[in-house]
Amino acid sequence: MLVIYNTLSKQKEEFIPLEKGKIKMYVCGPTVYDLFHIGNARSFINSDFIRKYLEYKGYEVSFAMNLTDVDDKIINKANAENKTPREVAEFFTRAFFDDIVKLGVKPATIYPKATEHIGDIISMIERLIQNGYAYNQDGNVFFDISKFKNYGKLSGKNIDDLIEGARVEINTAKQNPLDFALWKSAKPGEPAWESPWSTGRPGWHIECSAMSCKHLGDTFDIHAGGNDLIFPHHENEIAQSEAANGKTFVRYWLHFGFLNINNEKMSKSLGNFQTARDFLVHYSAETIRFFFAQTHYGAPLNFANEGLESAKRGLQKIDNLIQRITNSLESAVDVPDSLSAFDIAQFRTAFESAMDDDFNTPRACGVLFDFIRDANKALDAYPAAPRQLLIAIKEFLDITAAGIFGIASFEQANTNAPSLENELIELLISVRVEAKKQKQYQLSDFVRDELAKLGIVLQDGKDKTTFKKLS
Questions:
Q1: N or C: which end of the chain has fewer CB within 10 A?
Q2: Chain segment 424-444, per-residue pLDDT in tens
Q3: From the candidate CATH numbers 3.40.640.10, 1.10.730.10, 3.40.50.300, 3.55.40.20, the one assigned to the domain spanning 276-413
Q4: Which of 38, 18, 25, 32 has its CA nearest to residue 279?
Q5: Exposed (0-12), middle (13-18) or buried (19+): which is 287, by Cβ within 10 Å?
Q6: For residue 263, is it left (φ>0), alpha (ψ between -120 and 50) or beta?
Q7: Could you name the CATH architecture of 3-256?
Q8: Where are the alpha helices (DSSP H) in 103-234?
Q9: pTM for the complete prediction?
């Protein structure tokens, strides 16, 4: 039985999907004004662990991750760099896809963009006004939190306390300092769209509600994101979605713990702001993923080089066993009784038990290390490599280390193995290399991006471009 800690109820609950065999899951994606940082990467990678485990259990997962491509931060960045907001958003959207692929994260089912859902956003705001939960002040539309009686149910915050502690705002258009913007009347030079209230743009919170309901339905199974989004973002999502649709918005809320850099909160002012791309220069995606897997998704995590080096050493044990299996299979012999000497089923049961307990990846990692130790002992007992046992060990690692955690690959261990698929990939790589020589960068990027959609990551080295297939 799979149980999940639900932020809404503040306890573990048995997971029961709305529709048998299917799960609809939404994860807050980036605001594309800069490269995403390592804290964002933790959310993306933990979401990937969860999604892949649910798929392993046989669920069909519809996975949506939004891209916020209209926002104050994008506008400020554009003004600072003398660019248009669209240019900034498009550049960092491409950068996001480049980095997410390098981190081994499986592509979402859909990546909805705010600018492509303006009609859906306006429609939801219209319903909120019609239902009495929103009001228009001079072309700016605000959500009236006093009308939503359960405001604060996710974060546990008390409205009266929040109002008392709120700073006095200059914005006199609001009836209440905690009311939040659904639609903003545009200032000169800002991106804007026509609406019944003004030429303007949507607020951040309403974007996620409109996009998630559009693609996953008025009620869906799982909504995940960082702890910093619980209030006000997710709280506001609940209020406006349930006020607009009259239905429970999300059944299970998952939140990822805070991440510090060398025991300090990450911030640009402290000079320790680190992007995922920064770390990918020094550490492999597998090392970063394995480092994250060794701490529960909901717990705080200190991101430090010592921990990454430890993860790197642990990963080597997995790689060594994979290499041993790959090399041994070439000369393996049939030993029919070899499976009886090593009970692989107990490890699979233990791994599933760990993951069924609120996706307890650190416990699952412990099972993986126990498996590696005992698998090596079992193989040492035979003078010749037993084929049946090797295949069974490989299958377990394919499911766990490669499939769910994305920290290992038998294909990488045997990159010289000839296949038509590999030859075709190499052919496309050569086309891309030639395109870059001819300065046909649009074609070069197209080849890379299309291969990425198929789960094939290109890695540009000093002398050669290699590839890796994601599970």
A1: N
A2: 888 899 899 888 888 888 898
A3: 1.10.730.10
A4: 38
A5: buried
A6: left
A7: 3-Layer(aba) Sandwich (3.40)
A8: 118-130, 159-165, 204-216
A9: 0.86
Q: Residue 466 pairs with which residues in a beta bridge?
A: 459
Judge contact between 167 and 152, C-beta under 8 A: no
- Are 69 and 10 within 8 A, CB to CB? no
Q: Which element (helix H / strand E) includes 30?
A: none
- Asked whether 54 and 246 are in contact (CB, 8 A), the reply is no
Q: CB neighbours (10 Å) of residue 412?
A: 17
C-alpha to C-alpha distance for 141 and 125, rounded to whole angstroms? 8
- Of 218-227, 255-264, 371-380, which gets the smallest average pLDDT? 255-264
* pLDDT score of 340: 82
pLDDT greater than 50 at residue 416: no
**Residue 241: which of 120, 98, 157 has the closest Cα?**
120
List the structure tokens of 110: 């859909």
Q: Which residue ranges make up each domain of the chain?
A: 3-256, 276-413, 420-469
Looking at residue 74, its pLDDT comes to: 96
Tokens describing residue 29: 């994606």
Q: How far apart are CA 21 and CA 2, in angstroms?
A: 13
